[in-house]
Write a structure and sequence with these properties.
- The chain has one domain (about 5-45, about 80-230).
- The chain has helices at about 5-15, 15-55, 65-70, 80-95, 100-125, 130-155, 165-230.
- It has 7 helices and no strands.
């Protein structure tokens, strides 16, 4: 008699605990792939927006004109654009107040940019902890299913007078499927997490560099304005 060791048959013949483990791993894998595709698109858009805005910012365009374009109601701001918008709006607001020193005006704009930078990075890092969790825990969850399945198989052998490989093989195979599914869920999550974390660090570095450069530009403008008002 030939034993059916196909994946579908092994899953269907697995015990309830092992099936529950497999179901958890399948759900975790599906959610991970959903987040992977969403984050891939998000990072792609963020990189395109950053490249485009940097070219516009350093093209020589007047800051007031750039702020008008970025600040228009129909314009969806994100990333570096949003950091620029918040910083320049705060700069203009503080500049209009009487008795404000240029240094205080620039510091206020810098704080506004830093606050927006934190919000942007929170959005970028969203869902990455889930991928890290799936990548680190899925193999152990699968291993738990495997251990439980093997224990059940050996317990069943206790009621048999003569144990043979044919009796042991199906139960162990069913259990090992859980480990395979754990690895199937973990590997893409780990690869995606490492890739997205690297992209997030690169974007964060570019945002921070932009804030430093923009702060220098605002410092020059603030001092020029002060000289003109004397």
């Amino acid at each position: 008699m030939t034993t059916d060791l196909s994946i579908v048959h092994l899953i269907s013949q697995a015990g309830p605990i092992v099936k529950l483990v497999m179901l958890m791993l399948v759900i975790a894998s599906l959610v991970s792939w959903m987040f992977i595709f969403a984050k891939y698109k998000e990072f792609k858009v963020a990189l395109e927006v950053t490249n485009t805005f940097e070219k516009r910012f350093w093209s020589g365009i007047e800051l007031n004109e750039l702020a008008r374009q970025v600040g228009s109601d129909h314009y969806r701001r994100s990333g570096m654009e949003s950091i620029f918008h918040m910083g320049f709006q705060e700069y203009k607001r503080l500049k209009e107040q009487k008795g404000m020193e240029p240094m205080h005006v620039v510091e206020g704009a810098r704080r506004a940019m830093q606050a927006q930078y934190t919000r942007e990075m929170d959005l970028i890092d969203n869902h990455l902890p889930f991928l890290a969790t799936v990548g680190s825990t899925s193999p152990y969850v699968g291993l738990f299913g495997t251990v439980w399945g093997i224990m059940s198989s050996f317990q069943a052998l206790g009621n048999v007078k003569q144990a043979t490989l044919a009796l042991v093989a199906p139960g162990i195979s069913e259990a090992l499927v859980a480990t395979a599914m754990g690895l199937f869920a973990a590997i893409p999550a780990v690869v995606a997490y490492n890739r997205f974390s690297t992209n997030a660090d690169r974007l964060a570095s570019r945002y921070e560099t932009f804030m430093d450069d923009f702060t220098s530009v605002l410092q020059r403008q603030a001092h020029l304005s002060m000289e003109e008002n004397k």
